[in-house]
Design a protein that fits this description.
Layout: H1 6-21, H2 33-46, E1 52-56, H3 67-83, E2 94-97, E3 103-109, E4 114-118, E5 125-126, E6 133-136, H4 141-147, H5 151-169, E7 189-193, H6 196-199, E8 209-212, E9 218-219, E10 228-231, H7 234-242, E11 248-254, H8 256-259, H9 263-271, E12 277-282, E13 294-298, H10 301-307, E14 315-320, H11 323-342, H12 354-359, H13 368-396, H14 402-420, H15 424-431, E15 437-440, H16 445-455, H17 468-475, E16 494-496, H18 497-502, E17 509-512, H19 522-531, E18 535-541, H20 542-563, H21 566-572, H22 589-599, E19 609-614, E20 619-623, E21 627-630, E22 637-639, E23 648-650, H23 657-665, H24 672-693, H25 700-709, H26 716-723, H27 735-745, H28 748-751, H29 754-785, H30 797-807, E24 810-818
Parallel strand pairs: 1-12, 1-13, 7-10, 7-11, 8-10, 11-12, 14-18, 15-16, 15-17, 17-18
Antiparallel strand pairs: 2-3, 2-6, 3-4, 4-5, 8-9, 19-20, 19-24, 21-22, 21-23, 23-24
């Protein structure tokens, strides 16, 4: 079954061409098929009043391809609107004749006529046809005074204007009709919120434009009334255009950073009809509301690869069959599911399935000792974590866990023994061929390089160099044998995952050792591999290959959901063909569970990190695309990867969890944080009361031992802190510690709220993390734009400024460098 129906895209391309050709002619710009479809989508939106659109690409490197089509289509539509609208002139306006370039000044405007004074003359004349003129910038008034008494200067000046108006007039060649004329003025504007360095080179010379910085300074000094305005951020557009009532047809945002921070302000301005429509082009989705609807077209990776003439499926598994390991894995997963059923699903042991992900990557190249050491480490870590899980879960059902725990340990030990005694992946390497690069986590790169070197180390023995004759004997030794084990790996380079992801496509075959433990979430890794164009293999046990299949099918389902979206059909009028349902019947439930764990993550861990050291020697590590305020910088902010030594920046950091809790509590409409405080006080008060009510003979050591017997895992200093009145801990980290306190104190109110506390603890943990991210983003937005989000609306300006002052002091960068390490999972 094909991953993607290419006929659908061919139909879309042809439909786009036919639709555009009715109005426009883009032959001279040599539009690609991708340009053609994007132009069609934007054209479709511009033909509808008050319609917004978001177009996303799965990769950032494709965003620049949107610039020229978007500039042209939006500018041509706005030019048409200006051409068809009536424009009023004022005395002193300067006009240029389209026919001969003659320059004139408006001297009189009344209801019946407009009188002008041509440059170099003293006799005013009536304008017979206003459509024969174009207004130029009032800044030329002084220039006219300089040249008006010299015929030569007048001729030179008007010759320049003729060239400029000819260049401007060439914009009309994009239309398939002669009905459109250059407007007298460009009363209505198109605004682009984009990076100056990326967009300005893309603007055709026939489109009069201006770039306006945050201080209102203008570049370049275009002779005509600008049709297109470029700004770096929405705040600049709002200050110098929107709030001054300048008519805006379309406002276009290029790049996530240009709209994500300002979406609430954009929505508000749209609802107030400050502009007609907005176009968003980036890689990320946006939030929409009832009165701010946005049509969405998300380009899928198979489509992008089709346009790039690349093969989509550049990734294949290299499957290793190991029946014993498959049987042992099945026994492990079955034991977990059967044990849960035996206790009527009152316990949850699925957390232990993560162990499988740690076992499959264990291998080496001819180094049995390293395989065994790693296997033993994994098993020791499993024992510790598994016992904590069993203690927590079995305590909840008042059942001894030890028998079941020992059974699972025995099953797990068998898996470990199979991995470390006769490692199947190591055996595969012995006969491997056709591998150009081996891709590994940075942590084992040197190990693998040394292991390959050891496989081919010289074994020349028995010769002592004691004369010149021995040299000849040494040189005449037989060449190193490369026909045995590992022969196919001779001279094979080892590269890290980071190096692999940055590497330019070269047609070489790259091999990863496993689907797991690559220092990056599995789904993110696979998406990056597919988005690239490297020929890639992953060394997989049969179960890993099933997981890979599941991921790829999941990507396909997501793509098909987009391809069949209502918005797509509404925009292009073409329905994506029906395809057979993806069969997942042969995928085990435990595999689906592990994949589900990845889907629940809330992170941007796939981004590179930079370490920044400030003049005060404080440090921070930030993701590359984070936007931060830069003092005295024209465009107000930079992404982390654009910062340099000497920049003065504000980089916000949330306060500690307890302080963050208190801040977010003020904005909490559902009283979740209030209930957390109530239940937090309940368990701590129960703990303190139990200790104080025992009397003078009951010492802290006795109290600690009693709690330990009931399952407490923390040390004495932590327990002492919980007993203090100013303790800010909301809940113990581990469920078993809370259960130990409940069992020891036997407090009636605490006993009656066990399930409520556990449920609230889980909800609160996730909510605090998410709320912390949201709060941080709102503070960053406030620093850049002074706009308040939903959470900051609850706080006073004084309180917000205090948070900014403490959390984002102005500091000067001493050093900044990319952290050369694998992305952390």
């Amino acid at each position: 079954m094909e991953i993607f129906n290419k006929e659908y895209l061919k139909d879309l391309i042809e439909h786009s061409k036919q639709s555009l050709n009715q109005t426009f002619c883009f032959h001279k710009d040599n539009f690609s098929k991708f340009d053609t479809v994007n132009s069609f989508l934007i054209d479709k939106v511009l033909k509808s009043d008050r319609t917004n659109i978001l177009i996303t690409s799965p990769t950032k490197d494709k965003l620049n391809d949107f610039l020229l089509p978007t500039i042209l289509i939006t500018s041509l539509h706005c030019l048409t609107k200006n051409s068809n609208s009536e424009t009023e002139l004022s005395v002193s306006d300067i006009l240029v004749s389209k026919e001969d370039g003659r320059v004139s000044t408006v001297k009189d405007v009344n209801e019946t006529s407009i009188r002008i004074l041509p440059l170099g003359t003293t006799r005013r004349i009536d304008i017979e046809n206003l459509s024969n003129y174009v207004q130029i910038s009032p800044r030329y008034a002084d220039r006219l005074e300089e040249v008006r008494f010299s015929k030569t200067r007048i001729n030179n000046f008007e010759a320049t204007k003729r060239k400029e108006i000819t260049e401007y007039g060439s914009v009309l060649s994009y239309f398939n009709t002669t009905d459109i004329q250059l407007p007298l003025k460009n009363k209505t504007k198109v605004i682009f919120v984009a990076s100056k360095n990326e967009i300005l080179p893309k603007i055709p010379s026939c489109i009069p434009y201006q770039y306006v910085n945050k201080s209102g300074e203008v570049y370049p000094d275009t002779p005509f009334d600008p049709l297109l305005i470029v700004v770096n951020d929405f705040n600049t557009a709002k200050e110098f255009f929107i709030e001054k009532g300048i008519p805006i047809d379309t406002i276009v945002f290029i790049g996530d950073t240009k709209y994500q921070q300002s979406i609430s302000a954009i929505s508000k301005a749209y609802r107030q009809q400050k502009f007609n429509r907005s176009i968003f082009i980036g890689t990320q989705d946006i939030e929409i509301g009832e009165n701010f609807e946005v049509l969405k077209w998300n380009w899928t990776l198979p489509e992008i690869k089709f346009f790039n003439q690349q093969q989509y499926q550049n990734l294949t598994p290299e499957i290793i069959s190991n029946a014993d390991l498959s049987e042992a894995t099945l026994k492990f997963t079955n034991f977990i599911s059967e044990t849960e059923r035996r206790y009527e699903n009152l316990i949850n042991l699925k957390r232990l399935l993560k162990f499988i992900r740690k076992v499959y990557p264990i291998t080496a190249i001819g180094n049995v000792n390293r395989i065994r050491e790693r296997a033993n480490e994994i098993y020791a870590a499993f024992e510790t974590e598994a016992e904590e899980v069993f203690q927590d879960e079995y305590y909840n059902i008042d059942t001894d866990y030890k028998e079941d725990f020992e059974q699972l340990k025995s099953i797990t030990k068998n898996i470990i023994d199979l991995i470390k005694n006769g490692n199947a992946k190591n055996d595969w390497f012995k006969k491997a061929t056709g591998i150009d690069y081996i891709v590994v986590p940075k942590s084992i790169k040197k190990h693998c390089e040394k292991e390959i070197q050891n496989c081919f180390s010289s074994k020349q023995k028995g010769i002592t160099l004691n004369s010149l004759g021995n040299i000849a004997e040494l040189l005449n030794q037989p060449k190193q044998d490369v026909n045995g084990d590992y022969a196919g790996l001779k001279d094979t380079p080892i590269i890290t995952v980071s190096e692999f992801l940055k590497k330019e496509p070269d047609g070489k075959t790259h091999l990863l050792l496993s689907l797991y433990s690559n220092g990056i979430y599995t789904d993110v890794l696979l998406q990056k591999i597919l988005a690239g164009n490297q020929k890639t293999k992953i060394l997989c046990y049969a179960e890993e290959a099933k997981v890979l299949q599941m991921y790829l099918q999941g990507f396909q389902r997501e793509d098909e959901t987009e391809l069949r979206s209502v918005h797509r059909e509404q925009l292009c009028g073409i329905k994506y063909p029906e395809t057979p349902n993806i069969n997942t019947e042969n995928i085990d439930e435990w595999i689906k569970h592990l994949i589900g764990l990845d889907e629940q993550k809330y992170t941007r861990a796939d981004e590179q990190r930079y370490e920044i050291v400030f003049d005060d020697e404080s440090k921070t590590v930030e993701r590359e695309s984070k936007k931060v305020f830069v003092d005295e910088y024209e465009e107000l902010y930079k992404e982390i990867n654009q910062l340099k030594k000497g920049d003065k920046v504000r980089i916000y950091r949330n306060p500690d969890k307890e302080t963050l809790h208190d801040i977010i509590k003020m904005t909490d409409e559902k009283d979740l944080f209030t209930r957390v405080d109530n239940f937090s006080s309940l368990w701590k008060n129960a703990l303190r009361s139990h200790f104080s009510n025992k009397g003078a003979d009951y010492h802290f050591e006795m109290f600690f031992e009693e709690l330990k017997e009931n399952g407490l895992s923390v040390d004495k200093p932590r327990l002492e802190y919980w007993l203090k009145e100013d303790c800010k801990t909301k809940f113990p980290m581990k469920k078993r510690d809370l259960l130990a306190i409940i069992k020891t104190t036997n407090h009636s109110e605490l006993n009656g709220n066990i399930q409520n506390i556990f449920a609230l603890k889980t909800t609160y943990s996730g909510r605090l993390v998410k709320a912390g991210v949201e709060f941080s983003e709102e503070i960053n937005t406030y620093i850049l734009t002074k706009e308040k989000g939903k959470m900051l609306d609850w706080l006073s300006d004084e309180h917000i400024e205090h948070i900014v002052s403490n959390g984002a002091p102005l500091r000067t960068i001493k050093t900044i460098q990319l952290i050369d390490e694998e992305i952390i999972d």
